[in-house]
Design goal:
It contains two helices and 56 strands. The chain is mainly beta. The chain is globular, with a radius of gyration of 25 Å. Helix content is 4%, strand content 39%. The protein has a 24-stranded parallel β-sheet that branches.
Length: 664
């Protein structure tokens, strides 16, 4: 164990390329952030939440600050704000509460076991040097390795030696001599989080100290969320699951009791109530025309083990586990389902795409999912349509193996709003129009942080959908903050799309396979033209690692597909490592009142589709006026070739307040 831990410790501490800073172990004033930013910079964007976020690097500590780093496969790169604090046994980090609180959430990482599968370790929690208690940390749900769909084995060989591998720019099985890759290969998904009720209310100014123990060779603390949790909700007029045999201690399986309570409630026209407790549920609970309410997601916890099935199901599932599922769309789906005020805790530790081991699934029309806390499932909410009019609001979805939410196939007239998402293993929020178009849906005022793979918000085809007022931070690899993509067999984009008033930060990532920088928002024409009316209005792109905006196709289809009819208006770009706009496709886009500052390279990196005709690039930039900051010079218009395939990166300064009318 020590040898593996030593390797991972060195990677965690030294990734930034400069000596790590050691903070003083002294009381500090609380620094409250949102997505590791001053909240004033993201006002009106993202989910309203009940907790206050404090980054460990801003707290008092006897440990070592690691980062910043935006290189994939490192501990700092997956941390919120790209920094964290590493503690050796006996070291601590101490947070000063900014307001009254009786509950905390700790986002952390500890080492994997030598053969994979994780370890557990205690973390000492104290307040004001007293009231000591222990939080049990685990790495059983983190630490994935290797190629997609990943492995839990740190010493495993390539899963797909016949795939192209970026690290050698080759197909290993077809290469002589065959390349050898260091192990563990591509470690990722390092973080997990734990919640703890403190047992009493503490006031602003009280000090919460987290002290690492010898249970782990090192402990990395990313952040602490503190919250004042209210009293449990009680419903005395509902069908209480305890009356049907549910066990609130979690020792006995309660799935049958839930089924009985649901059947009784439907007959009597009642809601189902799940009082405080931990309930063991190891399979799907099928819901239709029923409301299930908990006492609040801090109090009612529905937890399940992953169960291996004797035979695969027709849908390909080889496991089952805890989840609330509507009936399949092929059977008419479910209606009038309302899930509210409880936690779902799964036991998913590997990615098997055919498995239905999601927190909420199936088809649910005229339904709502509110106030849930979902973690350790494959996807928090995976809806297979056709279905319509579902509202998903006010949920916390963390530590997923894949997406937080996916509208898959023909989901219409639905709203996803005010949700907080952190640490997904794939897209945070997605609409995937496979076989049938998603239409007239809205993703509004959500926060998506640290998606380890893919995008914060991704839209694959569809008609008349809206992405508005969201906050997206710190995507890691093979994606960025917002993607509009013609890929994965999606139906074409049609009608209109509105992408309005969103803020992204520390996005515009490095694409490891292409070895180029993406945009914070990127349009990808892989399988079809993108030619719907797309309005990108009022968005703020902050601290972009590479580009703010990218329009791109894949090399093998670059002369087949185009991107047109995209309109950018009233945009602020504060910091790019390279360009404001990178065009690597044929087509056109319009720009109006796009203001930019701290731009690291040419404002428009226009490569078109790389044929470089004498008439200019195959991509046209249309200036509609008001584009300030000098990034869009007249000589670039409409289609001057300014192509620098891989321009050098200039690290931008941290985002700062924008003086309206001054551009700085």
């Amino acid at each position: 164990m020590r040898a593996l831990a030593t390797v991972l410790t060195a990677a965690a501490v030294l990734v930034a390329g400069t000596p790590p800073a050691v903070a003083q172990a002294r009381a500090t004033a609380p620094v409250v952030t949102r997505a590791a930013l001053d909240p004033a910079l993201v006002a009106g964007r993202g989910a309203p939440v009940a907790f206050a976020e404090q980054e460990a690097e801003n707290a008092a500590t006897s440990g070592t600050v690691i980062g910043p780093d935006r290189t994939a496969y490192t501990l700092p790169s997956e941390a919120s704000g790209r920094k964290a604090v590493r503690l050796a046994p006996g070291q601590h980090v101490e947070f000063t509460l900014p307001s009254a609180a009786n509950a905390i959430t700790v986002r952390y990482s500890i080492p994997d076991s030598p053969g994979g599968g994780g370890i557990t370790a205690p973390l000492e929690v104290s307040v004001n040097g007293r009231d000591k208690r222990t939080m049990t940390l685990t790495s059983q749900y983190s630490w994935l390795y290797n190629q997609y769909p990943f492995s839990n084995d740190p010493q495993g060989d390539l899963l797909h030696p016949d795939w192209w591998v970026a690290e050698c720019a080759c197909v290993p099985a077809a290469t002589d001599p065959r390349p050898v890759f260091a192990k563990p290969f591509r470690p990722s998904h390092f973080y997990d989080e734990q919640r703890l009720l403190l047992g009493k209310k503490y006031k602003a100014g009280d000090r919460v100290r987290l002290t690492a123990t010898a249970g782990a060779e090192w402990t990395v603390i990313d952040l602490l969320d503190s919250e004042l949790v209210g009293l449990p909700y009680v419903n005395l007029k509902a069908a209480n699951v305890l009356l049907f045999g549910a066990d609130p201690s979690g020792r006995r399986e309660s799935a049958g009791a839930f089924d009985k309570a649901i059947a009784f409630a439907k007959r009597k026209g009642l809601k189902v109530y799940v009082p405080p407790g931990v309930y063991q549920v190891n399979r799907h609970i099928v819901v239709d025309d029923v409301t299930i309410e908990g006492a609040g997601n801090w109090y009612t916890i529905i937890r399940g083990k992953q169960v291996t099935l004797d035979e695969p199901l027709p849908d390909g599932s080889v496991h089952t586990g805890v989840g609330f599922y509507g009936k399949p769309a092929s059977e008419g789906g479910s209606r009038n389902v309302h899930l509210k005020g409880f936690a779902i805790e799964g036991d998913v530790r590997e990615r098997i795409d055919t498995d239905q081991v999601n927190g909420v699934g199936g088809a649910m029309s005229d339904s709502s999912v509110t106030g849930l806390h979902i973690r350790h499932t494959k996807v928090g909410l995976w809806f297979d349509g056709p279905m319509s009019k579902v509202e998903v609001s006010g949920n916390i979805i963390v530590d997923q193996i894949a997406d937080a939410l996916n509208f898959h196939t023909g989901v219409t007239d639905s709203v996803v709003s005010n949700n907080f998402v952190r640490n997904t293993g794939d897209d945070g929020l997605a609409m995937w129009s496979e076989k049938s178009a998603n239409a007239r849906n809205v993703f509004d005022r959500n926060t998506v942080q640290t998606p380890v793979l893919a995008n914060g918000i991704a839209i694959y085809g569809g008609t008349d959908n809206t992405i508005s007022n969201n906050l997206i931070a710190d995507p890691i690899r093979e994606g960025s903050a917002i993607q509009v993509g013609s890929r994965f067999g999606a139906e074409p984009f049609a009608g209109s799309m509105w992408i309005t008033n969103n803020t992204t930060v520390r996005s515009g990532t490095f694409e490891l396979n292409w070895k180029i920088g993406l945009g914070a928002i990127w349009f990808y024409a892989l399988e079809k033209n993108i030619e719907a009316d797309i309005q990108v209005v009022g968005n703020h792109f902050l601290d972009n690692t590479y580009n703010a905006i990218m329009l791109v196709s894949e090399w093998s289809v670059k002369d087949l597909y185009s991107i047109s009819n995209v309109h950018f208006k009233d945009i602020r770009v504060d910091g790019t490592g390279t360009s404001v706009v990178s065009a690597r496709v044929k087509g056109s886009a319009t720009f109006e009142n796009v203001d930019a500052r701290n731009v690291g390279a040419v404002g428009v990196n226009n490569c078109g589709s790389f044929n470089f005709p004498p008439t200019g690039s195959e991509f046209s930039v249309i200036d509609r006026g008001g584009n300030d900051g000098g990034w869009l010079a007249p000589w670039m218009l409409p289609n001057t070739i300014t192509c620098d395939d891989r321009p050098p990166v200039v690290t931008p300064p941290a985002p700062s307040p924008w003086i309206v009318g001054g551009g700085s």
